[in-house]
Amino acid sequence: MESEILTTSDEKPDDRSALLMMLTYVEAECRRLGVGMAAEYAAMAAAAMLQRRPVPARADGVPLH
Description:
Number of helices: 2
Radius of gyration: 13 Å
Structural class: mainly alpha
Helix content: 55-70%
Distance between the termini: 28 Å
Low-confidence stretches: 1-7
Shape: flat
Largest sheet: none
Strand content: under 5%
């Protein structure tokens, strides 16, 4: 997976991998606890890190930040 992760000059690949792993864990735990919306936000944050895009708005158009 590390080969898929793009980094800037001041980022370490291990740091990004750790953050992605934590977000994946948070998503799984939120789903296990039945908190679907929180799980979706964690998944969107992980996807944004991989795609280097800002986190998208919610389905109803409200920005997440």
